[in-house]
Design goal:
The chain has three domains: about 5-60, Nucleic acid-binding proteins (OB fold (Dihydrolipoamide Acetyltransferase, E2P), Beta Barrel), CATH 2.40.50.140; about 65-145, DNA polymerase, domain 1, CATH 1.10.150.20; about 160-205. The protein has a five-stranded antiparallel sheet with strand order 3-2-1-4-5, covered by helices on one side. It has nine helices and five strands. By secondary structure, the protein is of the alpha+beta class. The relative contact order is 0.13. One of its GO terms (cellular component) is Holliday junction helicase complex. InterPro entries: DNA_helicase_Holl-junc_RuvA_I, Hlx-hairpin-Hlx_DNA-bd_motif, NA-bd_OB-fold, RuvA, RuvA_2-like, RuvA_C, RuvA_C_sf. Belongs to the RuvA family.
Length: about 210
């Protein structure tokens, strides 16, 4: 199994990023590929998890070890596969998911694509009290910081918004849900990554 890959950021798609290492391009599925757009052509370390099934071998990648640890916890829950775990992590920070699980906030958890009441309850049953090794300190304060995080500096355009919509569709959000928030997003002038973060904040508030 690959623990991490160190290489050059190449192609970026709605669901994946390509990391080139020693002449080999690794297609790595990641929660939000566009966070790597500012690092295109640069060398980075991406933490990886290899998922093997009878019909597919996939490589998942994460910007931090915390994200990778949270991903492994999530796919251990009955009813959550890799794609569902990626959609949950796409919000940006594992801390809010951990807080929701510890506080048994089913309403928050069911706002993620593919997470119904039954799956939310299973997440709480399976993971509550077992996530200290993922994020042991400052959980509440960090969650508040994430909730209050601003959109950031503005450098995007309509093409960036279209890319963000593609990424959100790949994460499992429906066309109806995205149409509902698009007018609000179109007022902003930000990067693709920032559009995705802002969109997820809006979707989770619905």
């Amino acid at each position: 199994m690959y623990e991490y890959i160190k290489g050059i950021v190449g192609q970026i798609g709605p669901e994946y990023v390509v990391i080139e290492n020693n002449g080999i391009g690794y297609q790595i599925l990641t929660p939000n590929p566009f966070i790597f757009s500012t690092k295109q052509g640069m060398e980075i370390v991406i933490y990886t998890y290899q998922h093997v099934r009878e019909d597919v071998i996939a490589l998942y990648g994460f910007e931090t070890m915390t994200e990778k640890q949270m991903f492994r916890k999530l796919i251990s829950v009955s009813g959550i596969g890799p794609k569902g775990a990626m959609a949950i992590l796409a919000f940006g920070e594992p801390v809010q998911v951990i807080q929701a699980i510890e506080m048994e906030d089913e309403k928050f958890l069911t706002k993620f694509p593919g997470v119904g009441k039954k799956t939310a309850r299973q997440m709480i049953l399976d993971l509550k009290g077992k996530l200290n090794d993922v994020l042991p300190e400052g959980m509440t304060e960090a969650a508040a910081d994430v909730q209050d995080e601003s959109v950031g500096e503005t450098t995007g355009d309509s093409a960036a918004l279209d890319e963000a919509m593609l990424a959100l569709t790949a994460l499992g959000y429906s066309e109806r849900e995205l149409k509902k928030i698009r007018p609000q997003l179109s007022k902003e002038d930000v990067t693709t990554d920032q559009f995705i973060k802002y969109a997820l904040q809006l979707l989770l508030k619905q």
